């Protein structure tokens, strides 16, 4: 069975709930408390672009229950290290407050800030990245092409960024709107085969619009570090099990990609579907990958589950996925939960404090 790994980016915040630029200090503390099994990938804290955020990752796991345990353990471990720097972690894809964030004291980060101006300045955003193992690049590219129409549904399920710079945006995932300003971000055209994939990367590098291959920010890409497909479309999830749901659905899509080829919609239509998912998340319509027409979000999510049902059943994930999809549709994604807290009277700082609790208790 394919292994899965989950990378999560978190905000570093004060106990009172305000973003705090202490990533360098947190990483210094983390360097003295590494995992026991340093030969296995994942499990360590890593730097991100800004001082107000930190990234952690799980080791690769084939069993979904074990993956959930690893996600929770990673959150707990990261928060423990952050506490040593006087901070906490919050699984929020954007900070609700007005924030002037700062880049890491790193040459590449400062080069990006200088080259990309306001796009770089605004990038205090946190995502959830799923890695699913592949046997070859041929298989990986087939999976990338198969994922194209379904990535927007994954985004809708994960939406967790309704606020930006002190205002309510009206979006479930405003992170995706901010992230989409990078020159390589978003949906891609079909690649066809590894040669086609690498030709696109080479041509992008040849434009001079990006510094290096690390700035290939497609919704899904071949990992440059591991033999995996890396799906990067989702907001970081408020609830740990929602991150595991992303992983289970990605694995289901990866297995489903090995069947008969599917029709490939134009990239312009996928951009529209992605915008729709970012705007309304689970509270309105989504664009159906099967028809290209709007349908209530719950119906489109059901289409995704039905599409991957045989793969989920074979992996032993079907019952858990069906149960947790029902939970998400009933309870709501992170954006819906945040707006519920607002309705109860929570201000920006209180939203962050509640998110800290939810990050570690879910």
Would you identify the CATH architecture? 2-Layer Sandwich
User: The biggest beta sheet, please?
Assistant: 6 strands, antiparallel
Distance between the termini: 27 Å
- Gyration radius over CA: 19 Å
What sequence of helices (H) and strands (E) makes up the elements? EHEHEHEHHEEHHEEHHEEHHHHH
Structural class label: alpha+beta
Mean pLDDT over the full residue set: 96
Estimate nothing, just give the exact number of structural domains.
1
Count of helical segments?
A: 14
User: What is the CATH class?
Assistant: Alpha Beta
Which fold name corresponds to the CATH topology? Answer: Creatine Kinase, Chain A, domain 2
Principal-axis shape equals globular
Low-confidence stretches: none
Specify the helix fraction band.
40-55%
Q: In what range is the share of β-strand residues?
A: 5-15%
- Beta strands, count: 10
Function: ATP-dependent carboxylate-amine ligase which exhibits weak glutamate--cysteine ligase activity.
GO biological process, one term: modified amino acid biosynthetic process
Organism: Cellulomonas terrae
Enzyme class: ligase
